[in-house]
Design goal:
The structure is a single chain. By secondary structure, the chain is an alpha/beta fold. The chain has one domain (about 1-124): Response regulator (Rossmann fold). It is about 45% helix and about 20% strand. The chain contains 5 helices and 5 strands; from the N terminus they run E-H-E-H-E-H-E-H-E-H. Strands 2-1-3-4-5 form a 5-stranded parallel beta sheet, with helices on both faces. Helix 3 links the parallel strand 3 and strand 4. Helix 1 (about 10-20) crosses helix 5 and helix 2 (about 35-40) packs parallel to helix 3. About 30% of the residues are buried.
Amino acid sequence: MKFLVVDDSATMRRIVVNSLNRIGYSEVVEAGDGHEALAAFDASIQFVITDWNMPNMGGLDFVKAVRAKDEGKKIPIIMVTTRSVREDIVLAAQAGVNNYVVKPFTPQVLKEKIDQTLGAVGAA
């Protein structure tokens, strides 16, 4: 499975990529903001993990742009962010996010969210 990891922090991208590697996912494309991510997004991407707060194009706008594409309508998307209030989680879901992880997180939490998301998307 090929992941697109979007975060303006190179350190956080490395944490997410290392977590993915530890749970068995090795195909990962990285982007530093929504614009870079849209440029990297193609039909080979099978799962997106994105931050919310990024310069140029934030996570919500990126998710909306992905959902507007034919190849992005059903792709699983997890938002990994420090934003933890209920209103933000609702906004993310309304934008098209399938699941939500609050930083900091462990590889096990990320794995559980990926598994939940794949199960829910597969059942839809």
